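Exercise (ungraded).
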Amino acid sequence: ETGVTQSPTHLIKTRGQQVTLRCSSQSGHNTVSWYQQALGQGPQFIFQYYREEENGRGNFPPRFSGLQFPNYSSELNVNALELDDSALYLCASSYTGLITGETQYFGPGTRLLVL
Amino acid sequence: GENVEQHPSTLSVQEGDSAVIKCTYSDSASNYFPWYKQELGKRPQLIIDIRSNVGEKKDQRIAVTLNKTAKHFSLHITETQPEDSAVYFCASRRLGQNFVFGPGTRLSVLP
């Protein structure tokens, strides 16, 4: 198992609400990427955080936002939840440096259900 | 942007047989190609990866081959076992860009 952790494991929200998901990166890693995985599909890139700044973003609206903290942990915030936001949200940590380690290691995910 | 296709979407093999899953990518500058295994209700787990300066990599029963000219790479699992049953995802990445994942292949190993 990787050292990447996520909380909570499951969450039920209603349409229009806001949600915050959390991720702690693996020791020695400084980059966190967030993915949305709908049922039966591959992970879709939401955005990546490096040095506490967004470092790349996929095709997701601005109501998906994030933060990275000095200890490299990260949050994903989703405002104005929609039914289609129901999915497994995965974070992945990696190391970015002079010799970039490209390998990403996933956390266990947060399963979000929007009713 | 990068597009990754993966075939087949489902694959059933008898225990002990080999399984092959193929992915094609569109960005010729992509240079890193990992494979992940995801069991039901669990996180994607990295099982093997390959970089564009290598044509083949092997780790026990698992191997990955890369054809840069044709822009495709394949996962080979030999002597399959029931515990190999899972969904397998390929991904590709150009340095400095985000990963793009394939849609997944559901592998079933029948005893």
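Further reading is listed at the end of the chapter. For now, observe: The CA atoms of residues 2 and 27 of chain B lie 5 Å apart. The mean pLDDT of chain B is 95.
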